[in-house]
User: Which sequence fits this backbone?
């Protein structure tokens, strides 16, 4: 696997990506230390096709029909005080 430094990768990014598109991989290094590996997309691990996805903060929660009325009495007491 070829190793290129950051400057070379920035200068020749288009050429390097053409090589990756043909199936080749390479490593980008900074001061001789490997920082990243660039691989073709077909070699990237993909998530399972039916992996459950979380939608929203609390999935599978049902909203009650009277949601807009819930706590009305308590809220009115907080704003207007106790009835006399």
Assistant:
């Amino acid at each position: 696997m070829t190793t290129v430094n950051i400057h070379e990768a920035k200068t020749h990014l288009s050429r390097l990506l053409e090589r990756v598109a043909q199936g080749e991989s390479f490593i980008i290094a900074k001061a001789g230390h490997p920082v990243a590996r660039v691989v073709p997309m077909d070699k990237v691990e993909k998530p399972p096709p039916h992996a459950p996805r979380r939608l929203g903060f609390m999935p599978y929660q049902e909203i009650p029909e009277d949601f807009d009325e819930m706590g009305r009495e308590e809220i009115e007491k907080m704003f207007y005080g106790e009835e006399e």
User: Anything to note?
Assistant: The chain has a mean pLDDT of 85.
